[in-house]
Structures are given as structure tokens and as C-alpha cells.
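Q: Sequence in, structure out?
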Amino acid sequence: MDNEELSGNFDKVTDEELVSRFKSGDHSSFINLVDRYKKGLYGMFYRVLRNQADAEDLTQEVFLKAYINLNGFREESSFKTWLYRIGINLASNFKKSGRYNREILDNSLTEFNSKSQPVFIKNLIEKDQTRLLSKAIKSLPTKQRVTLSLRIDKELKNHEIAEILDCPIGTVKANLFHAINNLREKFKKMGINSFKEL
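A: Exactly. Output:
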């Protein structure tokens, strides 16, 4: 299958096949991997950094690092997990570098794609309480916000989140549990019971 055929059957070709082709010397297959993940990575960076230029730069940097290191990818996890882990590490390093605006970072991880939200978040949006939800999510500790975003925005499974964040699955479950409970408590104090479905 040449690259033209690959482009035509983009959705049918697995990440594993594309990685295998890349490792076999067909570096043009990497374009398909970029096309598959660039929007998701950009969205994650933009939600965290609230800066279009920084999000674009980090998205490009992820793919540059992936391209350089793909031959060494051991495939112990999925390509998606490996790629997002590179992204999380870059975002963390970017945050530590002081090149970001702390106020912007505090507004991170609050926009959700409505088609991937659990029932309790959909109920809040239907009741026009998105602003309150955003404020509540902003107040969560960073680890809870990031874990919640990876679970809801990116629809990742707990084991994938654990690999990306380099922590045990139990920590992921605990972060999700505490994030939901913290959100429940915040809304309970406001007299909103939209979390009862959980």
C-alpha cells in the first residue's frame, strides 16, 4: 500500500500499521499520524495554556519529538498514549519554564465537548450553568483537573490516563473520584443537585 492508498483509507489503517510502516522506512506514513492527532493535542494544549501560539508551538514540538523518537518506540503502550504522554511532559516542562501566564493556566481544562460529557455535565449545560461548572472545575487541584479532562475530553480509559500521567491506575481513579466529589460539594453548597445521577 503506497501513501496515496494510505490517505484514502485513513480511518481503516491502525496506528500500529502506520508506526510499523514508519519503522520500515516509509516516513511519509507519519503524516497520517499527525492528521489523526493534531486537533486533539492542540485542543488539550489550548485548554491548558489558553494561548493559541503556545498551543500551536507545543503541538508541533510533540510531533517533532515523536518523529525523532518513533523508531525507539517500544509499543508497550498504544501510540496514542505514548503521544499524549509526550504532550503532558512538554506541557509540564513549559509550565515550569515560566513561559506561560499563570492566570491563563488557572482557566485551563474547563471547556468540554458536549457530545462526550457524562450525564451530570450535560444536565448542567442544559440548565445554562456552564459558567458555574467552569468556575468549579477551575478551582479543582491541577491533578484532578487534568485527569478529568483526559477522561472526559479525550475519552481515555483509566489505564491510558495512568500511562500518560505516569501514575498507578488507583491514583487516576482517586483523582476522578475526588474531582467528582469536589464538584458535587461545590454545587451542593450552591443548592444545585445536578450530580444526583452519578
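The mean pLDDT is 76.
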